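<goal> How does this chain fold?
<body> The protein record starts here
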Amino acid sequence: MTTAETQNPHAYAGMWVTDDGHVRHELLANGRYDEARGKRESAYQGSYRITGNHIDYVDDTGFTADGEFIDDVLYHGGMVLRRRSDPTGE
């Protein structure tokens, strides 16, 4: 990620959560992500790149995945994640 991207994070940076709260993707402004699953915080971590409405993930083990943002909803790996504005989930 370039310095300009770090200073001006992508509009999709933030917390994305499944409706049941089980899967939580935090897209950090520095191009990294932290995924929690259930009670397991930081279950997966890695980097991401956004091109238009498409996101490509590469976790720290080398596993790759992708997704699409449509109408402020993230569709990823058969899951639907919505933006959470309150990081505490309240």
In short: Strands lie at 14-18, 23-27, 32-37, 40-51, 54-59, 64-70, 73-76, 79-84.
